[in-house]
Amino acid sequence: MKKLVIGIAIIIILSPIFLMYNHKQQPTEDDVFKYTKNWSARTEEVYLLRKIDGEWFTIFRDANSIKIARLEQNWLGYWMIKNNDGSKTTLSSIAYPTLPENELNWSAGSRGKTSHYFGQITNPDIKKIEVETYRDSFEDALIINTEYGEFFLSRADGELVMPVNIRGLTETGKLIYSSVKPIKEGMK
Fold first, then answer.
1. Nearest CA to 20 among 58, 57, 73?
2. Dihedral sign, CA of 8, 11, 13, 16?
């Protein structure tokens, strides 16, 4: 009986220490690999783990796509992929490999009450991305540089604006890419 009481006392003392230790840990590439190990397409590379606006994000690749996901700790302190509405899913994904003739490889989608615009910049002349988050309202996207390429992310409250309009500009502000093609004069 004495051993049982001592064992319970040790567990009660060590549990908070374990939880505090786990909750202080930052996510690692290994966390992403562990979390996605049972997915149908296995993760092959983790491109990024970064805290952006107070939240942790990861960009990772499988054989067919590059994905961006939000990371969140569970009550034990283990990192898991969760989007803003609590679903255990990625925020967005783009096709892999990227075709060299494409200037941008991008996708957009809504999760709950938040829209996400994500892509890879393949034209080195593109230095700024603008995303139309509301009708005729463009927001600068965050450019994310990794050793695997340049990516962009933009988040907006509300539903996805259709058609999605993403613009790529040079350093001087010259428009060199638009996902919405302008209507030519006389063809209205």
1. 73
2. negative
Question: Would you state the structure tokens that stand for residue 69, as one six-digit string?
Answer: 């996901």
Cβ–Cβ under 8 Å, residues 92 and 83:
no
CA pair distance 28, 19, nearest whole angstrom: 17
Sole residue written with tokens 């539903």: 159
- Tokens 């051993």 correspond to what residue? 3
> Can you read off the two tokens belonging to residue 7?
């064992």
pLDDT digit string (tens) for the chain, length 188 residues: 878 767 776 767 766 665 565 667 899 999 999 999 999 999 999 999 999 999 999 999 999 999 999 999 988 889 999 987 778 889 999 999 988 778 899 999 887 788 899 999 999 999 999 998 877 788 999 999 999 999 999 988 888 878 889 999 999 999 999 998 765 544 44
Q: Which helix (H) or strand (E) holds 12?
A: helix 2-23
State the pTM of this model: 0.84
> For the chain, how are helix, strand and coil distributed in percent, rounded to 5?
15, 45, 40
- Reported residue count of the chain is 188
